[in-house]
Amino acid sequence: MTWSxxxxxxxxxxxxxxxxxxVRASAAHGAAGRVIRxxxxxxxxxxxxxxxxxxxxxxxxxxVDGVLRLAPRRSEHVACAGxxxxxxxxxxTFARGPEGWxxxxxxxxxxGYCPEVAxxxxxADALDRAGVPHPGxxxxxxxxxxxxxxxxxxxxxxxxxVCALCDGKLPESWNFDSAQxxxxxxxxxETANRARRDSNxxxxxx
Length: 206
Known about the structure:
Layout (H helix, E strand, L loop, with lengths): L2 E2 L7 E2 L7 H7 L6 E3 L2 H8 L11 E6 L4 E4 L5 H4 L5 E12 L2 E8 L12 H11 L12 E4 L6 E4 L22 H5 L1 H15 L7
Parallel strand pairs: 1-2
Antiparallel strand pairs: 3-5, 4-5, 4-6, 6-7, 8-9
């Protein structure tokens, strides 16, 4: 498997963390997610104390090594990934089938990495190599965009490419790693913070 940070032809795209810096900092002190290379690994995880809520969705990432890693649902994706880049990330649900545990639902819902629906092949490859049956696609696919005006991360709903924070127009193409967006990060944070303050005015204190 080959990969690149958003771009080499023939390779899978790796996504860097794009969430709040303080979340990454706090995640740096925790353990990375449980590595799942086989059905045996999955069985052990789902019967462990951490995986006890087996019917709940789990946090997952696919590392740049192509391996599935799992963590409890309320875990941050960046912690599950050990702070590194990922080939995909989201939430995943397992259930017992005729031949053992299988994946019955999986999404790319990760606001820390904001991966594209097109990252599915990395998930399928990791599950196939682990011998875990799966639906063949994301059961729910999320479309992420960053607002060029204020820098806010958005989930695009019903094809409405408008920022939920400042009403700015969102681009049709995924834009979290473009040079323009990276250069605008600091300005965007300032604009976003101002928009939040304007939408949540402080009470008057004479």
